[in-house]
Amino acid sequence: MLEAEPPGPASASVILMHGLGADAGDLYPLPPVLGLPSDLHVRYVFPSAPQMRVSINMGMVMPAWYDIRSLGPEGQDESTIRRATGWIDELIAREVDRGVPASRIVLGGFSQGGAMALFTGLRYPQALAGVICMSGYLLLSDTLDA
To answer: In this predicted structure, which of 32-41, 82-91, 127-136 has the lowest mean pLDDT?
Structure first.
């Protein structure tokens, strides 16, 4: 996991998750590009997905938030999606323990990381500041309460 700390105590956090096959370093260059004022005191957290076999990629082991068995909703592996959600929930709890309220935490990600941001953010028991999904999709949409 990589982090980019603000110049003073953090009052907000952005947790950014990479896509399939990448790692925490993939999105690490993003904060300066955003051009946010430093007086917002945003901490950026870049977790790395665990190494796992990805079925759709001929079972190759690579960084992945969850397994993809095939294209389409039927190929979404619910058990690994829910396991990753638990890890992300722990990251949110860690930021809260560090003094950042959930209402000042943004979840974001690219591709598979964006899909995890949507899935976790829409189900988190407390209101988050926001969710950013870049080139992602809504996982297990049939399990989302209206």
So the answer is: 32-41
